[in-house]
Design a protein that fits this description.
AMP-dep_synth/lig_dom, membrane, single chain, long-chain fatty acid transmembrane transporter activity, 20 helices, seven-stranded mixed β-sheet, eight-stranded mixed β-sheet, transmembrane helix, EC 6.2.1.3, alpha/beta, 598 residues
Length: 598
Amino acid sequence: MFCTWISTVAGGILVLCVSLKIFLPYFWADLIYFLRRKRSKATVKKWAKNGILSITDLFRQSVEKNPHKPFLIYEGTVYTYQDVERRSNRVAQAFLHYGNLRKGDTVALLMGNGPDFIHVWFGLAKLGFVVAFLNVNIRSRSLLHCINTCAAKALVIGEDFLGSIEKEFVLNVLENNVAVWLMSASSPFQHVHTLPDKLDKVPDHPVPSHLGAVTDTANTALHIFTSGSTGFPKAAIITHRRTLAASLALTQCGAVSQDIIYVTLPLYHISASLLGISGCIQLGATCVLKRKFSAREFWNDCRKYNVTMFLYIGELCRYLCNQPCVSSIEEDRVHEVRIALGNGIRPSVWKEFLMRFGPVKIFEFYGSTEGSLSFLNYTNKIGAVGRADVYICFPFSWPAGKPGLLVFQVTEDSPFSGYVGNKEASEKKLLRNVFVEGDVYLDTGDLLVMDEDGFLYFTDRVGDTFRWKGENVATLEVADVIGMMDFVQEVNVYGVNYEGRTGMAAIVLKRYHDFNGERLYKHVEAFLPSYAQPRFVRIMDVMQTTATFKHQKTHLANEGFNPEIISEPLYFMYEPAHSYIPLTREKYQKVVSGEIRL
């Protein structure tokens, strides 16, 4: 009787498992992710009850649990959790004694990757200051704009940038009543403070806790700037609640305290600072911090430090795939990396990466600096940025197979804090009275598409998509098709001014390969509709990218296809020859005059 009962139960379980596999293949993945998200929300609430309302509160807890555990490894030097706590305490003490600032003031950081970035960040936060991360690659006018926008009362400049900072820039900052601090023992400028010498004069014990106490997690913790690809960078307001929520991202990918996370992205970027550094703190894990990404040194570093997880963005994984192979495929797979988290990897690169470097679980996500909505591809399906799971973590609707503009409702649980000092830009992001009177939605500016299984795919930025002959052209789709050619290493597609906006592709050729205009013509004709086929091609030695490895389009689009301006080889699609042929100055004049029609 008992055996019969056991057999019946076992048979029922087997039938259930097989049925789920056939009819609901992602049931368990959906359930696990749903439970992880619920646990994450519960964790943030639990933190609030226990007085953990900021990232420095969370860090202090990790210090108490693991004071002697390595927190940072930088250029071979190990910094324990306690080391970073004491050093950041000294920064707080120095600004308390010499800073002449008040709680709530904004201090801007112009610093490269290194332990001091984190020491200064945490030290300032312990005094209740709002910290603004500045992009170290922008200069002069844009930099002054950023400092003025966030109403910074002080600016801390890293030692690495002393040689590139112009005297005129420093004078302009000082004239705006912004105190300037240098991470250097001496200063080449007058009326500028130096920080390292003052750190030696102050104690390393904590400043009074009330100075940095957070009373509301909706208050501002950071200002992180957008890329500024369509104008001056905008300072997104990052709340304490968001920094704490972001710290749980690594956990949702299955990371644990024993993991060693490799951060090569710039710390001023939200992925490196909030997902990487804050994520390590939440786990109590170790972070291997790199001054600057190096494709050549990447895997050697991973092997040297036993890295198990890394963060990527943009074209970073492509650069790894473009590196020359070592002596054997097996050697490329000799590493301990099991997880990669990021956004911007192309499907073709994703496949190549797995083939070459082994079964790394790649968690592609969708998110933005200013928006609180995010998706995570927790099933690791190639190409997807997330999934609309059956438990409806996010309330939205989407017709399968049709690209659409992603908007999400602004609520208490999904707030939009806007941009500091730019009410006009903040308001432009909002759509009001969309479905019912009084509702508010955030316009992400991103086009996504959902397949029949509920997987979401990033299609393009609205600003990157262009119209040609009345049809919308998605630049990423065109780039993926051109990237299939065996002589193409990298491609960037954008619209240029010709009878409205027509497509142009900037291509970097693979080593020892030549451009073949006839083959490319046949290829795009076979795989792309006529309106999406690029009419112009530009051959480049190196692709222009941002500091976060995203393709730059604005500058290329502004240069257009004029051989008088562009010294690199140019080609245009010439139907009579069934090929892309050289765009000489003579041919250019015939194209713009209309004598040659495209």
